[in-house]
Amino acid sequence: MAKEKFDIIQSTCIPIAIDNCNTDLIIPARYLASTTRDPKFFGDAFMHDLRFDAQGNAYKEFVMNKPEFSEPPRKGIHEIIVGGQNWGSGSSREHAAWAIAGYGVRVVISSSFADIHRNNLLNCFVLPITVSPDFQQELFASIAKNSKTEVKVDVPNQTVTNMSTGNSEHFEINPYKKYCLMNAYDDIDYLLAHHTDIENFENKRK
């Protein structure tokens, strides 16, 4: 998945108000047999069976197919999903995180996440942010009122702000994962960045 440093992300959002949105909805099981790691392949599969019927025709009533939310994510546009509670429940398939990252989303906001899915998102350079249910509902209300509502995610200060109301909340993140996101490091990159310190430590042990 694409590695891009996290700092401040300010973007319009895709509101997916589905509680208990499980990983089978995020990416149907039939895509798990693929051996590709092509981000576009998994991005195209994101929410596929809610977006399209068996003939590939779009369900017009589904939020991602509505004109105001159908534009693919890019800088400042639809980089953030506001999801229902218990986002990513169900099986632990990492492909669900691949699909979200492959679609171009960088942040998922919810009032609660399934633990394994949360960690999978972080490993795929997607930031899961847990907010209070009240703030979550405020975001849904603001987006319903104006689809161009922007949310500002300040990773260094660990705050998320509804730009239409000015209301803000602090969010928690593992310090190691925060460091990795801000430097665009996966676990191997982190070790390579500290190889001199590791070598010095090993030499002292000898």
> What is the C-alpha radius of gyration, as a whole number of Å?
18 Å
* Backbone shape: globular
Helix/strand class: alpha/beta
Low-confidence stretches: none
Helicity level: 25-40%
Number of helices: 9
For the termini, the CA-CA separation is 38 Å
Widest β-sheet, arrangement of strands: 4-3-2-1-5-6-7
Calculate the mean pLDDT score and round it: 95
How would you sum up the major sheet? 7 strands, mixed
- What share of residues are in beta strands? 15-25%
Strand segment tally: 7
Order of helices and strands: EHHHEHEHEHEEEHHH
Provide an overview of this structure.
By secondary structure, this protein is of the alpha/beta class. It is built from nine helices and seven strands, in the order βαααβαβαβαβββααα. It has helices at residues 23-26, 39-45, 48-51, 95-103, 115-123, 133-145, 175-183, 187-193, 195-205, and strands at 8-16, 80-83, 107-110, 127-130, 150-154, 159-162, 168-170. Strands 4-3-2-1-5-6-7 form a seven-stranded mixed β-sheet. α4 crosses α5 (115-123). The protein is globular and about 65 Å long.
